[in-house]
Design a protein that fits this description.
31% of the residues lie in helices and 20% in strands. By secondary structure, it is α/β, with parallel strands linked by helices. The two termini are 23 Å apart. It binds fructose -6-phosphate.
Length: 256
């Protein structure tokens, strides 16, 4: 694992942007996996800037998003489709037909999930998958207890997630209880995963993910099995690590 610790959220976003921009420049027809949430917003702002000021070309990319709420149409303000278009895709020159986000209103969800997996295969697999991490160690919507070999499927949201989301919805009937999510197994097939974590709130999950045992109770710990996991943390997220990680090795911090 390549673990980099930077000062703060700004530096984390800048470092993540370097990695993604380098990937796009190296292979303009890359397949990139995108995440939603607060963590990658700074990265997406920088990608928009790179497009607008330096002509970074998104037109040949194929994209796959990690997850989407079941029951929300793409135009719903809380949908991940809406997030992706408003935070990134609307501001760069992506080719709409190559953008893939699971459809929360699919008639046959199981069939849709299988189609999503097939589309990833047909695209030649994901070159670079961007990931955030939940405070409980989830990746995408693979909550603790999810199979480490899982594929794209429908998952029940934890009661805590449903509770947390309720504040964003005027109509309590619209608060999603299910999501479609890439599986841990699907994510691990990406050539490279780029896991980003910022803030003290993530420090316990990061400690367990990088230095704890591989376990379905912390789905993100599966990055230990990945052949090229790149982890960028800010100091707060890294604050509970017992090891100093550098150049792909780890040394105990208190080993004087
Ligand atoms: C989002 C996703 C989630 C988030 C995670 C962290 O597509 O898959 O796993 O990455 O919940 O969210 P933030 O960045 O808001 O802390």
């Amino acid at each position: 694992m390549l673990v980099e610790v930077v000062d703060n959220y700004e530096s984390l976003s800048a470092r993540a942007a370097e990695v993604v921009i380098q990937q796009i420049r190296k292979k303009p027809d890359s397949t990139i996996g995108f995440a939603t949430g607060g963590t990658p917003k700074g990265l997406y702002d920088r990608l928009i800037q790179a497009h607008q000021e330096r002509g970074l070309d998104f037109s040949k990319l194929t994209t796959f998003n990690l997850d989407e709420y079941v029951g929300l149409p793409p135009e719903h303000e809380q949908s991940y489709a809406h997030y992706m278009w408003s935070n990134l895709f609307d501001h760069v020159n992506v080719t709409e037909s190559r953008v893939h986000i699971p459809h929360g209103m699919a008639d046959d969800i199981d069939e849709h999930c299988q189609w999503y997996e097939r589309r990833i295969q047909e695209a030649g697999g994901i070159d670079l998958q961007i990931l955030g991490i939940g405070a409980n160690g989830h990746i995408a919507f693979n909550e603790p207890g999810s199979s480490l070999g899982s594929r794209t499927r429908i998952k029940t949201l934890t009661s805590k997630t449903v509770e947390d989301n309720a504040r964003y919805f005027e109509d309590p009937d619209m608060v999603p209880e299910y999501a479609i999510t890439m599986g841990v197994g699907t994510i691990m097939e990406a050539e490279e995963v780029l896991l980003l974590a910022s803030g003290e709130r993530k420090s316990r999950a990061i400690k367990k993910t990088l230095e704890g045992p591989l376990t379905a109770m912390v789905p993100a710990s599966m990055v230990q099995m990945h052949r090229f996991a790149h982890v960028v943390l800010d100091e707060e997220a890294a604050s509970r690590l017992d090891y100093r990680h550098h150049h792909g090795i780890a040394e105990p911090k208190d080993d004087a």
